[in-house]
Amino acid sequence: MKKVAVITDATSAGFFFPAWYRYYGGQFGAANLHVVTYEGMKPLFGGFELGNLWEINAKYDDTLRAGVISDLVGVLLRSHDVVLRCDVDEFLIPDPARARDLRSYVERNDLPYVTAHGIDVVEVEEEAPLDMSQPLLDGQRRFGMRAAALSKTALITVPMRWAEGFHGATVPPVFAGLYNLHMKFADIKSRVSWFELMREGIEPGTNAHRYFSVGDEHLASVHKFLESRPRQEEETEAAFEARFLASVRRNEANGIYQGEFFRQDFLIRLDRFLSGGDLLRAYDGAAMADPSPEMGRLRTIEPPSVVPHVAPAFIADFSGQGLNLPPFPYLDVHGSDLVRREDVLLFGPNNLVTREGDWSCEARGGKEGFLKFYTAPFYDQVFPGPKPRIRRGPEGMRLDVAHLAEQDVTLIDEPVFLATPLEPAIWGRWITCVTAKITAYKAYGEGRKFMCHVTQDWEKAFLRLWGVPEEAILPHDPGRTYLLRDVMTVEFSEADLRVSAKERGGFYEMVAKHWDSTPRPRRIFVSRLSRVRKYPDYRVLRNEAELAAMLEVMGFTVFEPEQFPLETQIAAFAAAEQVVFMGGSGIFNAAFCAPDARVVSIESSARYAGGHAAFFSSLGLRHGVIFGREDESDPADHKRWDLDLARTREALAAFFAGS
């Protein structure tokens, strides 16, 4: 283990000093903390165990302290592997993606020195005063502002010298995932009191005295200006870093490398600096509510639309129950937006929640219905793993993560594009939702990982076919909980399982890409027989084999899509002029049918028939519906059923006669 010394200078044992002492002493031990103080101030620190307490026989002076501490760092390096240098209101914290704490970061670092990214922590109006008895980096302050002047070389293994304020050193800056969180603006009342104390210990007429004599009104106005800055990031950390490094110049007289002093004009969230466990606590009890429509919206991909409804050309009811579909002249079709969220909790297929409780998922409408899917007992059987709970009460829903430990949460620090659909392994969701997300990812998600639940061969083939490189895929387990630092996704106005005009164009492009001149059947029957053999108790049409034989006599080819590569499936449906579907996910292959194709769905009940008909309508396809008869004695949710074959033959013959 490396031997580490931490050095600072202080004029008071109050204000931030106790928090500084707890933070660095907790990680490196009090005996490794070294403090420089000024004339007559040594007794103030009698209550603190320290490795060294040096008193300078002079009042506070910025130039003097830089020189003295530069000398002492050189001395400490004779007996220590690493020295950390920071002010008492500066807290060095690593990127959690690199290390869980500062101690771990120091152990892993192999650079001779590291410059910390400077961030001014800012108190905003709705926040309570800092509780100095609690960890300052445990979510008490949520916002900060990048400031180039605070980008200081703070981790040292080789001797060097610093300029006044430690804003420059005799080595050029090198960034490596370490951050300097500066607390001066984190509590305005403490800052005013601290400035008053500092003035008392500084020689009047000096630059330092003038700095600390700006007045309470000025301090308050600066604070007000900072906390009123916008909270939408307009320049990335990498761009800010590049701008700072480009400004660095070497002073030939003293050998100091120093950059320009500038700051960004917006606030950034500080959630990313919390460890997984700390950040989890920040989400506990969050009241889940809809975010504003504009929150995180990058662009509208396509607005919602109302289109003429293509009603079924016929509905043949052989159920004996008088089944029908309600008539309506128009069809609502979802719109879609490209959205971005930062520092969000991801659970289930695509529930995203901020610390404030802003809750979004794949669809803005009908979210509560899909939350029931997440909280149903079967969900944990299909997707086991540690998950948040949802507490429901008179005031609405609250997120409960108190039972989760840090190891229960996967932290994803790199930018991702979330693509897992609301029903992760359902073909219809991949057709109507994942394809749209892939299109948006390819257009706007450059540099991001494609985060998606991909476990089955057909899902992997689907992504390959649609042009998502295997190396870009970040596997997503909907049974686990994640903390995402930066996520982009597509949010639909409704999860309606319909195809918009823009999305329809994408399917036509895919058909054109895989079209060939191979002769293919013009009539196909999409059978479920292989699935029946695999799942004999799920939605079984008991006379499907007889139905298939009857349709073969009528000139149909029995086609089981899952038995063929995706390219073959696409080409088969594109070539077909007449298609008979069994109610189920296979229906969504109609997205590849030509606009003049005719299709029929044979349904066991009316449960999904309306949605299937609306899907056909959104594609502009001429279609019909046939209802079979369920076995009411079957206790299963999806009951066994039968079909009147003679009447089905008549209905199909009449519908297809004109095509």
Oligomer: single chain
Q: Percent range for helical residues?
A: 25-40%
Question: What's the helix count?
Answer: 18
Strand content: 15-25%
Look at the structure and give the mean pLDDT. 89
Task: Determine the structural class based on helices, strands and strand pairing.
Answer: alpha/beta
| Amino- and carboxy-terminal Cα gap | 80 Å
Question: Which overall shape is indicated by the principal axes computed on the Cα atoms?
Answer: elongated
Query: How large is the radius of gyration?
Result: 33 Å
Low-confidence stretches: none
Total beta strands: 35
Largest sheet: 10 strands, mixed
What number of domains? 3
Features:
single chain, 659 residues, alpha/beta, Rossmann fold, 3 domains, ten-stranded mixed beta sheet, 18 helices, 35 strands, 28% helix, 25% strand, elongated
Characterise the protein shown here:
It comes from Acidocella aromatica. This is Glycosyltransferase 61 catalytic domain-containing protein. This protein has 659 residues and is of the alpha/beta class. The protein has 3 domains: 4-249 and 257-273, no CATH class; 284-304 and 332-494, no CATH class; 513-656, 3-Layer(aba) Sandwich (Rossmann fold). Helices cover 28% and strands 25% of the residues. The protein has 18 helices and 35 strands. Strands 1, 2, 3, 4, 5, 6, 7, 8, 9 and 12 form a 10-stranded mixed β-sheet that branches. Strand 19 (351-353) and strand 20 (359-360) form a beta hairpin. The chain is elongated, with a radius of gyration of 33 Å. The N and C termini lie far apart (80 Å). The model has no long low-confidence stretch (mean pLDDT 89).
